[in-house]
Amino acid sequence: MLIEHRGFQPTIAVSAVVASTAVISGNVTIGAGVQVLHGAVISAEDGSVSIGANCVIMENALVRGRASHDVRIGDSVMVGPHAHINGAVIGDEAFIATGASVFPGATIADRAEVRINAVVQVNTAVAADVVVPIGWVAVGDPAQLFSPDRHDEIWAVQKTLDFVGTVYGAGPGTSMGELMRAQNDFYSAHRDDRVLDQ
Question: Which CATH class is domain 2-195?
């Protein structure tokens, strides 16, 4: 399904294939030879999403562009089932495996791998050819890699990366109630979405 959102319509190369149950919304550009499989959602909320040539976006993946954090995915990238790329830059020939999460402001360089259920935190830079192991957490710039049982060490780095400011544009100490009121207002723009003929 193609959707006009905030006045922007997706642009999809003629040779790309988008499954009938995928959703492409807003200021999204999809390059030549890209395959978007069933259930995938590519949504440019108030930023943009650009996907290079010959990528595969697998079932139920989410790719979300946002203000100040556009998504740019290079050429020949695999985005696995249930993966989540939110406001990040992904280099050429990178591999984002099943269930991996890449947060706003993150950069995954060429040929890097974020393996099954791994997490790349906000404002983290994963260098070229680096592998984030299955279930591990990458945090910082340059990225430090931690197994998930090392929460205190992860948090020591993560708390310096301004998660709330990066993801929500809010200051320290903002309550969950305030964050959710702002998020509800922001996402209400979908009320004006328009489904496009395909």
Answer: mainly beta
Say if residue 142 is preceded by a cis peptide, omega within 30 of 0.
yes
pLDDT digits (tens, 9 = 90+) for 95-106: 999 999 999 999
Helix (H) or strand (E) holding 95: strand 95-96
> How many CA within 13 A on the CB side of residue 137?
19
**Residues across the chain:** 198
Consecutive H or E run containing 168: helix 163-168
Number of helices and strands (H, E) in the chain?
3, 24
Mean pLDDT, range 82-97, rounded to an integer: 98
Element spanning 153, H or E: helix 151-158
Q: Which two tokens stand for residue 84?
A: 């989540």
What's the pLDDT band for 198 if we cut at 50, 70, 90? low
Who's near 17: CB < 8 A, 6+ residues apart? 34, 35, 36
How confident is the prediction for the chain on average, in pLDDT? 95
Residues 174, 168 contacting (CB under 8 angstroms): yes
pTM above threshold 0.90: yes
